[in-house]
Amino acid sequence: MMINEHSWQEPRGEPSIRKNTLERNAHSLSLMARNLQDVAYEFLNLLRVYKDGHVERLIGTDVVPPSTDPHSPVFSKDIIIIPEHKISARLYLPSIAGGFKRRLPILLYFHGGAFCVSSPFTHNYHNYLNSLVVKAQIIAISINYRKAPENPLPAAYEDSWAALQWVASHRNGEGPEVWLNRYLDFDRVFLPERAPERTLHIICQCGSVLIPLGT
Fold first, then answer.
1. Peptide bond before 11: cis, by omega within 30 degrees of 0?
2. What is the pLDDT of residue 21?
3. Is residue 86's pLDDT more than 50?
4. What distances in angstroms separate CA 4 from CA 7, 14, 157, one per listed residue?
């Protein structure tokens, strides 16, 4: 069968589909252009700050819930440790902690992210600490410190110091967190060797007095 330019017809509905697609693409490009004009500054692959003050984080925004499964080798929960600044943390405890005759060491963990992105609740940090708690049989607490640019440094340093003070408040078994009162050995409190900008330096700069952790 011969088909010439006079007998051929465009399939029904195709022009409208093409038109809608072009309109959507044009609208998306227009939004992108307008958004770029509204950007005050950007840290490549980390975050954008808009002229109206809105901060868009490009990584480290996923959230994994804590584990309350009784069959899990690690229990975890989210707690508020500094109410005045709404500073939270994720606390980890080996599920067999109650079977130990001795108390457990604790690791205070300060997540990475250049003090501006990520949190203890992302799958990377949650899975890492789950694995570490199981293998080392320790308690771990991961601090969700305040982040720049909404809270410029030294806010994160101050929160790190306050978190250590909060842990120390349990040394007489009378702190607000029952897991620490019941299971923590204050003679074995550890900070990670690799922490944002050397956590020990943070503590030395922000802390005006030493905290007696042990008995």
1. no
2. 66
3. yes
4. 5, 20, 76
Establish how many alpha carbons lie within 13 A of residue 147's alpha carbon, considering only the half-sphere containing its beta carbon.
22
Spatial CB neighbours of 147, under 8 Å, sequence gap ≥ 6: 113, 115, 116, 117, 155, 156
Yes or no: say if 189 and 105 are a contact pair by the CB < 8 Å rule: yes
Taking the C-alpha atoms of residue 54 and residue 75, their distance in angstroms, rounded to an integer, is: 35
- The amino acid at residue 76 is S
What separation in angstroms does the CA of 114 have from each of 102, 148, 213? 37, 9, 29
Nearest to 86 by CA among 141, 151, 139: 151
- pLDDT, the chain, mean: 82
Looking up tokens 């002229």 gives 51
Q: What is the DSSP letter of 151?
A: S
197 half-sphere exposure, CB direction, 13 A CA radius: 14
Nearest-5° angle of CA 151, CA 145, CA 123? 120
pTM given for the model? 0.77
Both tokens of residue 26? 């044009």
Residue that the structure tokens 């005050």 belong to: 40
Question: How far is it, in rounded angstroms, from Cα 33 to Cα 37?
Answer: 6
- The pLDDT score that the predictor gives to residue 134 is 93
Q: Which residue's entry shows tokens 């199981």? A: 134
Is pLDDT above 60 for 34? no
